[in-house]
Write a structure and sequence with these properties.
Layout: H1 9-16, H2 18-22, E1 26-34, E2 40-48, E3 54-61, E4 66-68, H3 83-88, E5 95-98, H4 101-108, E6 113-115, E7 135-139, H5 144-159, E8 163-166, H6 180-185, H7 192-196, H8 235-248, H9 253-267, E9 273-275, E10 283-284, E11 289-293, H10 300-313, H11 316-353, H12 359-365, E12 379-380, H13 385-394, E13 399-403, H14 406-413, H15 419-430, E14 435-439, E15 443-447, E16 452-458, H16 460-472, E17 486-488, H17 505-519, E18 529-531, E19 534-539, H18 543-561, H19 567-573, H20 576-590, H21 599-620, H22 628-636, H23 647-651, H24 661-673, E20 677-682, E21 689-694
Parallel strand pairs: 5-6, 5-7, 7-8, 9-19, 11-16, 11-17, 12-13, 13-16
Antiparallel strand pairs: 1-2, 2-3, 3-4, 9-10, 14-15, 18-19, 20-21
Length: about 700
């Protein structure tokens, strides 16, 4: 025997919606579904956030208490909303079918007969037989999903012999996604007569279905980004960057970012710092993480090559010195081996003759303790954390990791068991404290300071996949992505022209000279100071630069404290003061600056930050665009998906940017909203499913 409910349905709704109400949602409706005899079947509770987000949660009485979820639907389908009223009404009356209980309630308040199956995706799982042979008028929402709902309902009602009509929502002046509640709210004096007089759409086809709408262009999901201003580059590399970009027919961003990261790497993340406070201990080291983003064949890989070539050449003098030292060490080792052999021979003869031997003197004559010289390294491509630690100890000035495709490296860090690797890379961006790695095979490796710049490329699809992880949680949500502050995702040039000309040799020579000069830079020659609080020499900001920095940082932090930015963007922008300092140091030294970092270098750094912020918003767009980026990707796969495909068919193919069920669902919703796919409700033994076919 069922217990008598102690908890009221309204109290149950507040309990079941409690998580959302705690986040600021407000309850907007509680709707009871009853069977033909008027018995309660289930409830649907709705709430809405002030920012427009909506949540719906069904719940039912299980005989003991109210629990979330609808009861299992009978074979014929779940009950219609307001079913007892439908059955009791005059069979000649028009029955309005709307999308959602709020719309049905609004029409019922005008003494009209109205019902709904609950949502745009539930038409196929509902028992429509109570409307058999009746006159039905559909009022779809003013969006693609509303029209598809009308299609699905009309097909089922016509099969039951219903006379089906559809209100022409295109003539009602409704906003996108507007419904009958919106129409009535704008017309408080409207009554049943006014509703019954609304124009009807010409929806009758020979095939007996509701008209499908022509696909509308998908909006561009990417925020606009500015064209890169070459004046932001140091004089020594400006012509070199613009010449290379023109030769490759790529955006200037594609050569400017590698050049700046390359200059920072040539200087070294542990060679010189900049002090950003006049009195406080805030020091930033020139460690930059850069990424150029573009489609395959966009030219990003060739655009990375010029900076890489110069980086690999700057260690030439050091390599020459290493080669001389290596040969000297080999020679000394050969001599030591010879002395050791000679000492053994002398000892053998002495023993044979019975002569006394001085072991200490004998050992000293063959002693050789010189350590082998370490090979200078600047560029690494694919090294484990343990090996990278060894290389950093041998090259304490710092390294740069170059990866033509960064997505694979980032994905490798997301695997379980690689958490310590991620922690290591987070330290590499700071370039400050020591890091200890304990491994069974290699034992304990202590790295005095991790300092690694990063440079590479990425494709948009793989970027979208990774950014969603960085924004929505998981291994990626630890700030690693936010450290790629020189990430650029520019528009490709609108036109392309064939180029086959010599590169500007003088410009490349000036750039090479700048790289070499930074590599050979002696901190004392640029009037660097030292302090106990900083483990490397540093430059201060000039008075003008300090004033500009304080004003700029104050404006930025006030903007962030206003709370208008999403958390991931706030985290990204909060690192811009450090970025501005690092860029200003590189810009100052690249143009032969000495002494305090100049105001001109600081202003250029601010220009970089402004440019990079626009690109950051584009980089993070896939996580906040309601599926538009994924919809574009899916639309390009149209020929690979036959009619009748499901969301599962899509994400099981593991296409880049489309291998997550939630992402695919958002993509399909966006495609449906813009009439590119048509939803087909399917009845199965379990819950109703949805298939899709492509619109013509």
């Amino acid at each position: 025997m069922n217990a008598i409910p102690v908890e009221t349905p309204h109290a149950a709704a507040r309990r079941i919606l409690g998580h959302f109400l705690a986040e600021g949602y407000l309850p907007t409706g509680l709707h009871e579904y009853r069977d033909a005899q008027g018995n309660q079947v289930f409830w649907r509770a709705r709430c809405k956030h002030p920012d427009g987000r909506k949540e719906i949660r069904p719940f039912r009485w299980n005989g003991t208490r109210y629990v979330p979820g609808e009861p299992p639907a009978p074979p014929e389908g779940k009950v219609l909303y307001q079913l007892p009223e439908l059955l009791a009404a005059n069979v000649e009356a028009i029955v309005y079918v709307a999308e959602g209980e709020a719309c049905a309630d609004a029409l019922t308040a005008l003494d009209l007969l109205a019902t709904t199956s609950g949502s745009s995706s539930s038409a196929g799982g509902t028992d429509w037989t109570p409307l058999r042979g009746r006159r039905v008028r559909l009022w779809p929402d003013n969006d693609a999903s509303g029209r598809k709902y009308a299609v699905d309902v009309a097909e089922r009602l016509r099969a039951l012999g219903c006379a089906v009509e559809c209100i022409d929502v295109d003539t009602l002046g409704l906003p996108e996604k507007g419904d009958c509640v919106d129409w009535l709210a704008a017309r408080p004096d409207a009554d049943a007569v006014a509703v019954n007089a609304l124009p009807l759409a010409e929806t009758a086809h020979a095939g007996g279905s509701v008209q499908h709408f022509a696909p509308a262009p998908l909006p561009d999901p990417l925020p606009a980004v500015p064209v890169f201003n070459p004046a932001l580059l140091p004089d020594c590399i400006r012509t070199w960057c613009t010449d290379a970009a023109d030769s490759l027919q790529v955006p200037l961003d594609f050569t400017a970012v590698p050049a700046m990261v390359g200059l920072a790497a040539a200087l070294g993340g542990r060679h010189l710092a900049v002090r950003l406070r006049r009195h406080g201990h805030w020091y930033e080291r020139p460690i930059l993480w850069g990424c150029v983003i573009g489609r395959p064949s966009s030219g990003k890989s060739p655009a990375l090559s010029p900076a890489r070539r110069l980086l690999e050449s700057v260690t030439g003098p050091e390599s020459d010195e290493y080669e001389r030292a290596r040969k000297m060490h080999e020679g000394k080792a050969i001599l030591a081996d010879a002395r050791k052999a000679q000492a053994k021979e002398e000892a053998r003869k002495a023993i044979k003759k019975g002569m006394p031997i001085d072991p200490e003197a004998l050992g000293e004559s063959a002693r050789f303790d010189d350590e082998a010289p370490t090979e200078p390294r600047l560029v690494v491509n694919d090294a484990t954390v343990e090996k990278l630690g060894e290389l950093l100890n041998e090259n304490p000035r710092g390294l740069i990791q170059f990866r033509d495709e960064l997505a694979g490296w980032l994905a490798s860090l997301d695997r379980e068991g690689r958490e310590q690797d991620r922690a290591f890379w987070l330290e590499c961006w700071n370039g400050t404290g020591p890091y200890t790695s304990d491994r069974i095979g290699r034992g304990t490796i202590r790295i005095e300071a991790c300092a690694v710049s990063i440079l590479g490329g990425m494709q948009p699809g793989k970027l979208a996949e990774y950014v969603r992880g960085a924004v929505r949680g998981g291994f990626s949500d630890d700030g690693l992505m936010q450290r790629f502050q020189l990430a650029v995702y520019p528009d490709l040039p609108a036109s392309w022209r064939y180029t086959d000309r010599p590169l500007d040799r003088e410009a490349e020579d000036r750039a090479r000279a700048a790289f070499n000069r930074l590599r050979a830079l002696n901190p004392a020659d640029v009037e660097a100071a030292t302090a106990d609080a900083c483990d490397v020499p540093f430059l201060r900001l000039s008075d003008d630069a300090q004033g500009l920095f304080v004003e700029w940082q104050t404006d930025l932090m006030q903007r962030l404290r206003a709370g208008d930015e999403p958390p991931f963007m706030e985290s990204h922008l909060a690192k811009y003061p450090a970025l501005a300092g690092r860029l200003a140091l590189v810009l100052h030294l690249a143009d032969n600056g000495t002494g305090a970092v100049s105001a001109d270098a600081m202003l250029k750094a601010f220009g970089w930050c402004e440019h990079l912020e626009r690109h950051a918003r584009r980089v993070y767009a896939p996580a906040t665009d309601n599926g538009l980026t994924a919809a574009h990707l899916l639309l390009r796969k149209r020929d690979s998906l036959p009619d009748g495909f499901t969301a599962r068919d899509v994400y099981r193919k593991c296409w880049a940017g489309l291998d997550d069920p939630d992402t695919v669902a958002e993509a399909l919703a966006a495609l449906a909203d813009h009439h590119h796919v048509i939803e087909l409700a399917q009845m199965t033994r379990g819950r109703p499913s949805v298939a899709y076919r492509w619109a013509a």
